[in-house]
Amino acid sequence: MVNELLSALELQKSFVDVLYLTNQKSIPQEIKRLLKERNLTHQVLRIDKFADARNRLGLVGTVIVDAVDSDAHQQQKLARIIETLEMENIGVILITDRVQVPVKSFSLAPVKSSFTMSGTTEAVSIDELWTRVSVNLAYRKKSEGMAVKPAIPPKQIQTIYKNKLAEQLSMTGAMVDNLTEQLRLAGLVQQDFLPTQLPNTDKIKWAAVFLPAEWVSGDIYNAVRIDEKHLGFYVADVVGHGMPAALLTIFLKQALVMRTTVDNTYHIFSPAEVMKNLNKRMATQKLSGYQFATCCYCLLNIDTLELTYARAGHPYPVLMRRDQEPKQLEVRGSLLGVFKDAEYSEDKIQLQPGDKILLYSDGAEPFIGNFDDLTGFHFTKEFTELKELPISETMDRFNMMAQNQNIDPAEVDDITTLGLEVVE
What we know:
With 424 residues, this protein is of the alpha+beta class. It folds into two domains: 2-187, no CATH class; 194-422, 4-Layer Sandwich (Phosphatase 2c, domain 1). The chain is 31% helix and 26% strand. A hairpin with a 6-residue loop joins β14 and β15. It is elongated. Mean pLDDT is 79; it is low at 6-10, 101-122 and 147-152.
């Protein structure tokens, strides 16, 4: 049952023999019966709630991870969980599938199902599962200086520990290493889609910060010269994290069109048109999973310094003007990919020498300001102190500020900022 899964508030404060992490609605009956007959204390927790148990791992004997039918995003989380548990010297039993192959069991009544573990297709019985639990508990309690009576003969424990635990660690380690390398390479590919250099001119200087929460990011940015007089630039943020979000950023890069060419002439799309066309492409594509995104797009006339901007559910762009408080440039616009026929507004502002414009993803918002229901949005003191610095120094300081913040790993988000300065 769903209510069988525990919340953080229900986690026990005493030692628990087995922590059962699962993405399923309940524990298989065979395992539930095993835990009961062996008098093992246990707690059940959703895999996505693992962070709630991190500071209580000292009270956990072993962990069974029931990761049946996990997708790529969940596997990425599992890799980090396994790394954490291994650092705490907690044995992990990873169940990856249900197998309809009877395997003889001497401890319990015969059943028609068995399990596969640690990425293999080998079917194991409930006895094998019990052996691994027993070995892990004996090793854990001994390392913690707790009294423990082996559930199986010491020589058998030593043999099983040497063979099975080594096999388990090798398999989980290989899985983590392989997944980490794939994500690292994917992150490098994604960064190839970011601009290698920004379009600096005598009048306009640029700087950017790109800090993925993981190897890959759900953020993307760009700044390009459209013609002799116009620059287009944006920051987009996919709703979600990990590989699916990163893949959608590549789609956004290709789908966001700033101008169209017809015969020997071209038309530069206004920011509102850019948002409308991008939204229509996303909605028409009927993307699965991470199908929503936010974006802020700006068009700058280099000659007149007129800035036109539009947004789609994204944080407002920020104007930093000398001797004034930073200001949000507000304009309405809904999320991308929700309503095919959504309309988007745009607004304009006349820039002047010394002005700076900052676009950022929502992961950067805690370092920039916060919203109060009564008094509205307020910029942080630390961010306000950056407004008089050149844009390159502003980004350097912001980068240090973001990386030095003490944030719970479960709350880390992609951070992207893109800024320009009108040179005096």
